[in-house]
Amino acid sequence: MSELKTTILTDDHLELKAKMAPFAGYNMPIQYSSVKEEALAVRNSVGVFDVSHMGEFFVEGEQTIDFIDHIIPNDYKNLSVGKAIYAPLLRENATIIDDLITYKLSENKAMICVNAANIEKDWNWISAQAQKFDIKLSNHSDEISLLAVQGPKAESTLNSLGLEVSDVPTFGVKSFENGIILARTGYTGEDGFEVFCPNATVKELWSNLLSSGVTPCGLAARDVLRLEVCYPLYGHELNDELTPLDTGLKWTVKMNKQNFIGKETLENYKAKYKLIKLALNKGIPREGYDVLNSNGDVIGKVTSGTMSVTLNRGIALALIDSQKVPADEIFLIKIRKNDYPAEYLKKPFVVGGNKK
Amino acid sequence: MSNTPSELKYTQEHEWAKLEGEVISIGITDFAQSSLGDIVFLELPEVGTSLDKDSPFGVVESIKSVSDLFSPLAGEVIEVNSELVDSPENINENAYDNWMIKVKPANMGDYEELMSAEQYTSFCDEN
């Protein structure tokens, strides 16, 4: 096994006695105090996550817009400068290479933020596509650190530290003189910002955030928070075999666009799966557990499951065989020897987004 | 540092056993609760279940993890702490006040073989 990579803040995490564990090739903080306290800090106040493992690519040149619009199915062309957009990255057969956010820094410059585990796979794919375009592509993943500052008090906290963010709309992007680029985006469902920092600036920002009373939060709390608001995670709800139509990402696919990679396949594609939301009153669903219909037949599997700290009940996302979605909408989850009836929900478990 | 009372016996799976007359109560250690973090679910056997030494007798879940509980000894379950099933978070408050099951041991040899507090402390330090 190759050596684990570390973020610039590793010593700071160790000093806080964080539980560290390998994640996507990086030694990452999983938990500081308690998953529950950290998650609730984000829902009720403000927390900060070191997500510097994530990758950042830059696209520059005259054909930047045409290029991005070609490699993602969402509508980048009509996006305003200074805004960001979420999309999957698709192959010709429409299977999902990764999911990513693209930031329109100017007409001729974009930043793409990708999952740490997929940096190499994405880079290889995007570079191969780039050959037909007049653009310059560069990978800055090792030079940029990323802090996600999330929660109702995120705006006031960043303002107080001299990063004026009140003028940044949802999914808006702002660049600062010291090289920081931030966007009003996140993975928790709360108001908040993802702050891309040149490596040299991240230690100071981290320490200023903690001095301002921001709760350091680990990847465990991040996973609970994203699952509560039903955001998909690559490797769980999304993978190399599924298309966006199989897994709840139809909204990111703009079939009226002239062209994008995967469009031809999707024109006649029948979804193989449906991604659904289930909640339990007893028991905690976990990844890989079987989902059953009222006859006890296996019709799908849990892709992510946890105890919700906000609702204090077990919640799950599950992929169900699209041919077997029961008309009576009765679902059960098999946990060890018992089948637990699940509540089938059509809206996310938790709706965040308050400001204070 | 984890708390490890000297009057109890311990397993490598981080259960404790406490001898009270002819009955042995079983729970998980302070080290275990601290490693697990917020405990949110507990599944225990029914009274009358017979257990083998080192066999799984239940499940403890934190927000992000699922762990089997292993019986330190062979015997019959004679009492189950159903209040703890309703409030598993109490284990995080005090791991040793919150027993999970009481077992009538098949033989006392199993109990005698368990680790002492001193042995368990060095086992945790080494692992």
Q: What keyword list fits this structure?
A:
heterodimer; A: 356 residues; alpha+beta; Gyrase A, domain 2; Alpha-Beta Plaits; Elongation Factor Tu (Ef-tu), domain 3; six-stranded mixed β-sheet; six-stranded antiparallel barrel; 19 strands; 20% helix; 33% strand; B: 127 residues; OB fold (Dihydrolipoamide Acetyltransferase, E2P); six-stranded antiparallel β-sheet; three-stranded antiparallel β-sheet; 5 helices; 9 strands; 25% helix
Helix content of chain A: 10-25%
| Helix-residue proportion of chain B | 25-40%
Query: Which strand order do you get reading across the main beta sheet of chain B?
Result: 1-2-3-9-8-5
CATH class of the largest domain in chain A: Alpha Beta
Mean pLDDT metric of chain A: 97
Structural class of chain A: alpha+beta
CATH architecture of the largest domain in chain A: 2-Layer Sandwich
Q: What is the strand tally of chain B?
A: 9
Strand order of the largest sheet of chain A: 10-11-12-9-3-13
The CATH topology of the largest domain in chain A is: Gyrase A, domain 2
| Gap between N and C termini of chain A | 46 Å
Unreliable stretches of chain B: none
Please state roughly what percent of the residues of chain A sit in beta strands, choosing from under 5%, 5-15%, 15-25%, 25-35%, 35-45% or over 45%. 25-35%
Q: For the residues shown, what is the average pLDDT of chain B?
A: 95
According to CATH, the homologous superfamily of the largest domain in chain A is Probable tRNA modification gtpase trme, domain 1
Number of domains of chain B: 1
Written as H for each helix and E for each strand, in order along the chain, the element string of chain A is HEEHEEHEEEHEEHEEEHEHHEEEEEE
- Give the chain pair forming the largest contact, with residue counts: A-B, 14 and 11 residues
Q: Count helical runs of chain B.
A: 5
